[in-house]
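User: Please predict structures.

Assistant: First:
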Amino acid sequence: MTSLSTVHDERIDDVIDRCRHLVHPALRSVTDRLHPRTGLMTRYSFGWCDADGEFHADVREGTGKGIRQVLAVLAAEAVGGRGQDAVPAAVTAELVHAFSLVHDDVMDHDERRRHRPTLWKTYGIGPAVLAGDVLLTLAIETAAHSTGEHAPQALTLLCGCLRALMHGQTEDLDFEDRPWRGPGAVTAAEYRAMAVNKTGALLGMSAAMGALLAGGSPRHVEAFDTAGREVGLAFQIMDDVLGIWGDPARTGKPVGSDLRRRKKTLPVLRALERDGPAARRLAELLAGPDALTNTQVARATELIEDGGGRALVTGEGHAALRRARETLASLPLHPRAGAELTALAHYLIERSH
């Protein structure tokens, strides 16, 4: 892929904003057709409005970066197409992502996301589950009816992504009931496989469908799917880092929120696998059934750092992005879009620092 230096003068935030403004009108038009009640909840889930339906002036208000839509647009441009070609893929990806977050928050009992109450906390569990179902239905409809001759293959990509995503979520839930150490303990390898399914599959689908709708070859589609899964692994790794060491002002969640809930994330698992004094003390600290106190969260954070968990997983994130770049390196890609993809990968790592 082209060197990052070719987009040195164009900040990655500008690339993200360009893709967002391309995709946002189409995404809004899909949700505008809904029942007023579910329409309100879907708009809230995207961060476009408050709980009473009052719109934010800036479409970026309350939303995430939209990495999936950016991948779809840049993949389309990288194979020589127009960013507009990838809009149905980007909308599909954003709808699936929103669906997964809504349902994940219910299953994980998370009360805050992006600096405000989660959907179920605002409207109730039943309405939130319904809103998630609506978002998934819209994603399937978008893939089926907005992609012309590519619709069958787009649906195949979407179904494969959904199977992987749900497989990964099942594994993630299963991890909660397994021990930290000893027989039956969750291994770092198992966690990586879960992350590739739960997070990577959707990023892979986003890039692959973007390339497909822009006329990319089967080789392009397969390569972007593979590379996107590696990017997804890196993305999840850095989310795990932010979940322990991230600034709440940036993450929208309380400091150490993953540790407080004794959530099995890769930095913890890697530190435990080192099997030194820090690992043993960390395992003892995490063994209880109750949420950790602030003091215990601070101590666990120190032990993970001492055990090498942060450094090890940061290295793994870089390695996953290298594999993604190597997967695409042999393909003929448009230089500008290729460079922007590289810049996006760089951003995914830097956001955790």
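Second:
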Amino acid sequence: MRRRDLLKAGVVGAGLVRAAQAQTTGAAADSWPTRPVHLIVAYPPGGVSDETARALAQQMSMRLKVPVIVENRAGAGGLTALESLARAAPDGHTLAYCAISPLVFVPASSTVPTPDVAPVVSIMDTPVLVLAHPTFKPKDFAAMIAAARRAPGRLRWATSGHATVGHMVLAQVRAAARVDIIHVPYKGGGQQLTDAIGGQFELLSSNVASQQLQFVRQGKLKALAIGSPVRLPVLPDVPTLAELGFPDANLVSTFGLFAPRGVPEDRLRLINVVINEALRLPEIRSKILDVSNLPTGGSAADFAARIAKERDRALRVPAD
């Protein structure tokens, strides 16, 4: 009983991982996994999400004693990856690393059901930056709102896709300030950043990562606001959206690991244990913390509750 309690609490160690493996069938400790694990990453190669997923895949491979094959499958703000995951066999050999946004923010015009997947473990929270091209004349967020009011439909705000957290930030700002800002959705953050540097639009929302922070330091982009509970130490002069009077837009991106619905609970517990153990490693924590992201972890139940809470308070995202 004590061992099961420890597993549920996420208090892990090598002995607990072996115990969880033994529970997967009630017989042999090495009977699952029986082949390589396929990890779908809902974002393009590069960037903090891809790097974090690959670092965790390496740790999973070491602990599960099978290869973990990473496949980047970007599109629709993560929805493409989760839909693919939902079609996979529910045996635990296919997992997906994705933000919770496809399960939380539903486009207003959408008739597509939310992918039926099982939350396994929360991995990290990522603040959201609101950025502008350096040639954009308004010097701060309030001036940007004033400019949007003076010229309805003139300002363009890019996000990494429909129904993403960045899109939700824009939707909440537009609703609260009653301004008309054009949404420019991308299929991920890579091309969005390239076009941002090239001045293809005035504004963008983007998850905090090393490249974004570097562009701000180099003056290639300027930070107007941050979606975060508190200001970031690396950007102490950038106010949170809550400070600026937009508490509903003060959002972070939460990323985690998902499995197809129907995977046996003992296998999900093992995966949860392995990821929680990896998130405690200094090299994994530093990879996340060094770019102002926050490692999370915890139980599958906690992760599911977080998703449900965010869904309850979310607006339906406009179809623009």
